[in-house]
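Wed. Picked up where I left off yesterday with Cobalt-precorrin 5A acetaldehyde-lyase. The coffee machine is broken again, so keeping this brief.
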Amino acid sequence: MNTVSERSVSLFSLTPGGQQIARRLRQALSALSMHCYCAEKYLQAGFLPFDGNLKQTVAQRFHCDHALIFIGACGIAVRMIAPLLKDKFTDPGVLVIDEQGQFVISLLSGHIGGANELARQVADSLGAQPVISTATDVNQTCAFDLLAQQLNAASEQLHAATKTVNQLLVSGHTVGLYIDPWLEATLGFDIRQFDIRGLTLVTEHDVARYALSALIDVSMQVMRPDWPIPSFQLIPRRLVAGIGCRKNVSSVQLLTLFQQQLQRLNIHPLAVAAIGSIDLKCDEPALQHLAQQYQVPFKLFSAAELSSCSAQFPQSEFVQQTVGVGCVSQPAAWLLSDGCLLGETLRQQGITLTYGVMKSCYMS
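Structure written out below (tokens, as returned):
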């Protein structure tokens, strides 16, 4: 899960009093990448002038930053962002702080946008009161979208599931939470380290016995049980792939083999988190195309990095002479997954493909 310290923030100070709050925040939250803006007539060291005016500057930063902070009235902030709003899954977090620094209001995108988390951090630094109004927070329950973010999980029904599950939780209905035993056995997966307030942990056999209104099914697998109630799958992005290939291998061939191997392993395509190879393949079109198709990072390793763990895998003299290490796909997958490989290495059509599974939500 992304933390606030990793996010870029634009802060808009509308008065000299607001600038005092801005300076306090910039000093207290130095880990944040914070840009402070103000009117040109109030310009001083550490501040940037509005680019044209406040409205134009907000419009420019709205799609660039993870969060916007206004020091001033809520009404002004609402009027500035209103024409820019799209949805809770893509809009940045927006906070409003009063000029006296007494209240920090989470105005927009409290969950996925991170505004609630940021509001608490900002309020703590100012000695202020965070104002959180999202229904799940007020009712002391978790939220489907926030749980997805914490797990770094995807969902084919994210919008519908978030609306349905969150409404059920705040209305007092019982929502079950099922964890695929494969995740627990393979990765030591522990759901209790995440926010699951209000959810009822169940086994596959429990589902029919509980009076559940819906079920959250956490699994990386495609084939799922035929649940007797509405279910929404959360797919942790934990699958990584180490790939070696000949020069100018067909993008279609690589994509086809990749998909076929996923099907053999019964792994959902949305579980893919990254692909990796040797740095000599940085410009290989088929690998770049694959990463783009799955919208995942393309991680590159030097021959020396791959050699650090390659001895445990079958070696090829040709590969050794060509790239400086005796194998590529297995050590790349090993490094990406911290040594948790999945299935056998596929060798076909000038391609070697090895899957691994990360034990943590995010790559180290």
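Quick read: The two ends are 12 Å apart (CA to CA).
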